[in-house]
Protein: Vitamin K epoxide reductase domain-containing protein
Amino acid sequence: MMRRRSTPWIHRNSRLLIGGIAILGALLTGYLTISKLSGGNVACPVSGCETVLSSQYATVFGQPLPLFGCLAYIAMAVFAFAPLAVAADHQKSLRRNLENNTWLLLLAGSTAMLVFSGYLMFLLAFQIKALCLYCLGSALFSASLFILTLIGRSWEDMGQIFFVTIVVGMVTLISTLGVYATANNPNPPSPSGTPITTTSSTAEIELAKYLKAKGVKMYGAFWCPHCHEQKEVFGKQAFSEINYVECADPKEPRRQLEVCQKAKIESYPTWEINGKLVEPGAKSLEELAKISGYKGSLKFQNKI
Structure:
């Protein structure tokens, strides 16, 4: 009597593992997305996290990069769990078709995420030159999803795996290089920065003059989107009163000037108030008024 070969443990549980990792990835990138959209800072034991998340590479099509990562993880979770929602006893054909199709989607999705994460790791190491634990965590999740997809089932056609991974990998890499073509352009944005488009009310101007009189400084970089956001909150007239310190070298934008190195500036924008550095990030005018002890009008017209 022949014994029926049992299904390997990894094949029985691969979808649960893939779905679980995808959910963790969605939570991580969702937290980063909310933090960036709300103008807040992320909790991180190393300074590199905010440096990376405030860099010119952290925004794609005007939206924070973690948003796209969150959507990708959600899609992977859906692909992993979709067949499990169909009863195998009553809808065998539907369940089988879902399993076959979603395995191909999982393979394509995990390949794209692996290639994109690999490119981001390259940027961290050779362009931004900063350590971001969230980025490393996401890259680890992407690699785990790819490996689990490969070993999570019995692939009958190995040529199919090779074809899908090569095609998706090449398309992802070419698309990524295209998206970041502007960020990688050797001709950086103008050292004068993006022009301020907002106007200032009397309240913004009075706060700016107060901060200038108290010796308050704002450290930033001309390529930093959050620095421009901070300038927009003040408005053109008021920001002209701010004691602004440019940290980016005009010739090498990613190199920090010595004045900011001595001040121990690790990310932008950073305010120095009463001789102390405030937690980096764009601040509302109400926050700056409170921290600096400003007692004037708080009827500001510009908001973050």
Residues 92-128 form the longest helix (37 residues). The mean pLDDT is 89. The chain has two domains: 9-179, 202-292.
